[in-house]
């Protein structure tokens, strides 16, 4: 059961790594997958650096949590995902952005998964 | 001498009249290029396929029976449009098939070099309207498209090929079929069928200019490149034609070629090792293969029908009498597709691409058809080999130069001619000077081709003499022509990678190897081939090079390379974590 839980938690980590690395290797495709154009100049730099770093860091933190068994590693990515979901709602409600229920759902589900599973994964180390 | 005002006016008017007359006298040029059409695929070259439009052109022009191209598409197109050897014009092979070790060399990018000038640019400079409708395949970046290489109006496919019924790639190395209109990405109409559409666009371009300037229209058809697809009404004409199979067809075409005088009456023919035994097939298999070839014939027939529409339009608009037509193919028949296309693996692969190859719908929208090596050999009858190979079946194709300005009766030439001759020929027909040393601020690689204009008019018998050596190489398959002789080397899987010597005038089927009987001739030609290779920067292909495999590797790299790199990096990171986890 614990092995299965580790695999389930590892899957979003791998997905985040893929998305983050895609920003480094193929930023145009990465931008398109998130519904944005690839900007020029400083905008492109920020897109690649900030968005790429967000995803890579989340992936690495989850993997670090799985490796060390320290549940605090899971808190940061969970916090980031909750924040992302909240900001998507704000963007929709206040700033005329498109409503993105699929993405919000994924972010909340993964954040909850990390928070709920972290004590179990930590306890068994 | 003092001229009166009236005299000055008369002189000026006369001069203007003469200039205008000179403009009218310059002929229009229609350059039609079929794709992968075999040597005997049109009726006037021995085919059973009905090609009345091309036959009518042949009846008013000269048919060349010893004309050679490269054995693959893009190198032919690059030489055709520039008159420069493929190793010096940037396209020694299709870009999809160039090994990475070669791609670092300037002339091995598979993109038409900026150091050559196209016949379209020269004609455009000379005041011609220049149109192109069809396959380009000489570069797909914005400044590599025909719109930037001398064509003022274009509708063009940048890839090796594409579906004939819709805007869809035909092999998975492409994400989409890359069509461009006047240099911008475009989408095809719902009722698209390639041959019909390309002629419609050509007519539209021609009619868009009503001034007195002549035009040059380049029409590189998709027909009959894979996927072999044709309207049902054309296919249905041939459903019973190929029931006797490929061996009978090859023999039938050889016989007809002899009757027509296309080849010597005593010429022999060999059976390719890739030709399967028709008699060993089941009735169901024979029925399916016959349908494959019927669709192919329908596709040739449809192309001819639409060429006929263009000719009729030119006649109706009074342009025909001043138009020269040049018709040819880019290389010999295409053997891709194997002789077992109904295997589970093949059908699964097609299904993934959104295609089927069911008997009932073969040739229609959504179907993927090929003719395979056995029927490809019949399409190249009576020659040996087919596309990609340097055998005559890969390189010798029909060439017809026709029109009222050329001749009012059928003529034939057995003189050796080469694809690089087309640009110089067009330049002479149109009284356009050859490119100067510099063009557009760049030093230009000089043309090597010879004009066929005098040959077309019957003023000379040959354009190449015994002292001329014409070299050729593509993907390691190589040849050198001199007088009636040819040395040729074909790599696997069909060839043996050894040099052979043939007299291709007496023995176009390449059945009688003369290397033992004429060792001095072989040595002389080999020496000249090595000289050709050195002078033109021909690179040796890697020992294990295989064109088809290289296309797959390059295609995966180009289309999926970044994704694979991301997956590789992700795997490495995850692998490191996993190792640390296991150690812990």
Automatic annotation (TrEMBL), chain A:
Keyword set includes Transmembrane: yes
Annotated TM spans: 46-67, 74-93, 99-116
Keyword set, alphabetical order: Membrane, Transmembrane, Transmembrane helix
Domain of life: Bacteria
Protein name (record): DUF4345 family protein
From TrEMBL, chain B:
Ranges where the Sulfatase N-terminal domain occurs: 27-430
The name this protein goes by in its record: Arylsulfatase
Highest taxon above the source species: Bacteria
Family assignment from sequence similarity: Belongs to the sulfatase family.
Transmembrane segments: 564-581
Keyword Transcription annotated: no
Residue ranges the record marks as coiled coil: none
Keyword check for Calcium: yes
Endpoints of the signal sequence: 1-22
Pfam families per UniProt: Sulfatase
Keyword vocabulary terms for this entry: Calcium, Membrane, Metal-binding, Signal, Transmembrane, Transmembrane helix
């Amino acid at each position: 059961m614990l092995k299965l839980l580790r695999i389930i938690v590892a899957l979003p980590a791998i997905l985040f790594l893929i998305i983050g690395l895609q920003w480094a290797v193929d930023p145009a495709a990465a931008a398109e997958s998130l519904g944005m154009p690839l900007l020029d100049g400083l905008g492109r730099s920020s897109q690649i650096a900030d968005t790429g770093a967000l995803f890579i860091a989340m992936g690495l933190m989850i993997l670090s949590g799985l490796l060390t068994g320290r549940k605090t590693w899971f808190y940061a990515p969970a916090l980031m995902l909750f924040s992302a979901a909240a900001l998507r709602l704000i963007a929709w409600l206040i700033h005329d952005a498109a409503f993105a229920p699929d993405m919000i759902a994924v972010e909340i589900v993964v954040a909850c998964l990390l928070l709920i599973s972290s004590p179990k994964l930590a306890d068994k180390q | 001498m003092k001229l009166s005002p009236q005299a000055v006016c008369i002189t000026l008017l006369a001069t203007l009249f003469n200039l205008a007359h000179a403009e009218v006298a310059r002929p229009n040029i229609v350059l039609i290029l079929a794709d992968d059409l075999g040597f005997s695929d049109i009726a006037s070259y021995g085919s059973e396929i009905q090609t009345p439009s091309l036959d009518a052109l042949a009846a008013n022009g000269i048919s060349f029976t010893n004309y050679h191209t490269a054995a693959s598409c893009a190198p032919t197109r690059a030489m055709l449009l520039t008159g420069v050897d493929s190793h010096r014009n940037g396209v020694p092979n299709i870009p999809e098939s160039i090994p990475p070790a070669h791609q670092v060399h300037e002339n091995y990018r598979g993109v038409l070099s900026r150091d050559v000038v196209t016949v379209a640019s020269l004609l455009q400079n000379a005041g011609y309207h220049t149109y192109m409708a069809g396959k380009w395949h000489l570069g797909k970046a914005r400044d590599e498209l025909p719109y930037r290489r001398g064509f003022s109006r274009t509708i063009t496919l940048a890839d090796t090929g594409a579906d004939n019924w819709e805007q869809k790639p035909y092999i998975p190395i492409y994400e989409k079929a890359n069509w461009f209109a006047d240099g911008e990405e475009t989408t095809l109409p719902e009722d698209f069928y390639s041959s019909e559409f390309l002629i419609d666009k050509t007519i539209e371009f021609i009619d868009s200019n009503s001034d007195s300037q002549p035009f040059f229209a380049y029409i590189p058809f998709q027909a009959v490149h894979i996927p072999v697809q044709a309207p049902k009404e054309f296919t249905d004409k041939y459903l019973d034609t190929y029931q006797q199979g490929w061996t009978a067809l090859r023999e039938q075409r050889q016989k007809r070629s002899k009757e027509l005088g296309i080849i010597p009456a005593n010429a022999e023919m060999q059976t390719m090792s890739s030709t399967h035994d028709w008699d060993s097939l089941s009735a169901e298999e024979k029925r399916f293969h016959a349908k494959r070839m019927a669709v192919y014939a329908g596709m040739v027939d449809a192309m001819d029908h639409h060429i006929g529409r263009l000719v009729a339009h030119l006649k109706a608009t009074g342009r025909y009498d001043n138009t020269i037509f040049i018709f040819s193919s880019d290389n010999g028949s295409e053997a891709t597709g194997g002789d077992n296309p109904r295997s589970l693996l093949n059908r699964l692969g097609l299904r993934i691409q959104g295609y089927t190859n069911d008997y009932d719908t073969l040739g229609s929208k959504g179907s993927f058809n090929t003719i395979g090596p056995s029927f490809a050999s019949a399409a190249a009858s009576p020659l040996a080999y087919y596309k990609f190979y340097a055998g005559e079946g890969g390189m010798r194709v029909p060439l017809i130069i026709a029109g009222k300005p050329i001749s009012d009766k059928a003529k034939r030439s057995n003189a050796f001619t080469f694809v690089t001759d087309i640009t110089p020929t067009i330049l002479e027909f149109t009284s356009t000077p050859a490119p100067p040393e510099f063009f557009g601020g760049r030093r230009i690689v000089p043309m090597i081709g010879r004009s066929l204009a005098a040959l077309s008019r019957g003023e000379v018998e040959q354009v190449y003499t015994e002292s001329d050596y014409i070299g050729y190489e593509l993907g390691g398959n190589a040849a050198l022509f001199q007088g009636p002789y040819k040395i040729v080397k074909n790599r696997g899987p069909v060839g043996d990678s050894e040099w052979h010597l043939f007299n291709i005038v007496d023995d176009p089927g390449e059945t009688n190897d003369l290397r033992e009987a004429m060792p001095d001739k072989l040595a002389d030609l080999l020496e000249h081939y090595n000289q050709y290779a050195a002078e033109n920067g021909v690179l040796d292909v890697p020992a294990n090079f295989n064109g088809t495999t290289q296309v797959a590797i390059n295609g995966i790299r180009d289309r999926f390379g970044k994704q694979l790199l991301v997956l590789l990096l992700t795997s490495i990171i995850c692998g490191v974590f996993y190792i640390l986890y296991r150690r812990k």
